[in-house]
Every structure is written in C-alpha cells, then in structure tokens.
Amino acid sequence: MAEYALMSRPGVRVYYFPADSAGARRVLEGAARGLALLERWFGPLGTDPDIVVMEIPEMWGSQASLAGGIIQTADAFRDAGRLFALYHELTHLWNAPDVDQPSARWNEGLATFLSRRMARVLDGWEGMDEAVQRTAQHLVDPQASPPQIASVPFLDYGDHGLTDLSYRVGFLMFWALHAALGDERFDGGLGSYYQENRERGGTFEALMEHLEARTSTALDEFFRDWVRTTAWHDRLRSGTPPEAIGLR
Ligand SMILES: [Zn+2]
Asked: What distance in angstroms lies between residue 235's CA and the mean position of ligand 1's atoms?
C-alpha cells in the first residue's frame, strides 16, 4: 500500500499517491471552484465545509459518500475529465436534511443533474444532451429497468425499494425543470429551499410546494407527471422528449 501525501486548503484536504500530485492539485482546485459555484447558485453554505478527498487504486472501484469523505479512484486524479463524483458529493453539502421516511431520495437525482451542470460550466463538458438521451433510452428499455418503473411513481420509490432509479429519473426531472425555469428561477428556488430548511429539513412534498411558490410558476402538472404519477414513463415511451414532459 502506497504512502499518502496530503495537499490542502481551508475546508478541503486531498490525500493522494505521491506520483499523482498534478492530479491532486486539479482535484483540490476543482473542489474550490465547485464550492464557489455552488455558493453562487444556492447561497452560503452556512457552515465551514470539511471535505476529504482520498485517492484509491483504480481496481477498487469508485465509491463516493463515505462518512465525511469523498473517495476518488486514481483515474479521477489522472484524467482531467473525471470530477463528476467530486462534484456530486459537493452538491450534497447544499442539501437540507431529507425527513421523508423512507425517502424517495430525490437529492440523488438533483446531485446527478448538478454534477453534470457543474462539469459543463467548470470544465466545458459537452456531454449533457447525450447523457439525457442515454438515460431516457435506458429508462424505457424493459431489459435495463425494473418493471415497477411503469407503475410506481417517483414519490413512492422509498416505499418500494426503488431508489436506485432516483438517480436517473431525478436527473431527467431536474434537467427538465431547469430547462423550463432557466438558471435564475431554478437556482433561486432551490437555494431558498436550502436556506430556509437547512436546520429543520423537509419532505419531497415540501420541496415541490416551495418550488412552485418561489418560482411563481405553475408546476402542478410538471410534478404530477414526473413525481406523483408515472406519466413521464408513458410519455417517454411514446417519443416525447424529456424537456417537453409536464409542461403545457
Ligand atoms: Zn449522492
């Protein structure tokens, strides 16, 4: 097992294999730029971040979200285009506690969308449209997704043990919501949700109510089709592009 070296700046520590110091610098820089971007979108975090990023050998596989830390495989330190897992975990810092029991884990869909949006803004990543298409195809492919996808609404994924789907369905939903609202209303709605519920937390229902009120946008049909029913699945299957689902 190689010895670790440490590189840090306030709020972020990166443990890396000495051979990968250029990658460690890029990860540290990526974390700093990511935190600054998220603060610009959603307002102050309100607590001091304490991010620990640790390089692990590639063969161990990527594993994110260990308590208090972000684990990145060596390839993330060597390949400039692979900061998605880091960005994903950074976005979770701006999550108000999720008090649904069990939870549909909509924050995972949001993190999936936001990490890709961050890569687009920070790194010039151009794969968003392809990711949307690929995800949509995957979700309507009966070989690739569980059959309950056509009958269990997103809101009930926690009750049905389907939260693996929350990443992909939530990605499409938040992507479509962002397309509908634009940066300002999307960020203002989510940012104020975080700021107001940072301590006490909130439910999926509370999020939907908040977004509708704060964006001054009628979103009842949008959430009906994406969250309360499986209309999104029917629409995707019949060829409707995800950005057109739930919107008049
Ligand atoms: Zn996550």
From this structure: 27
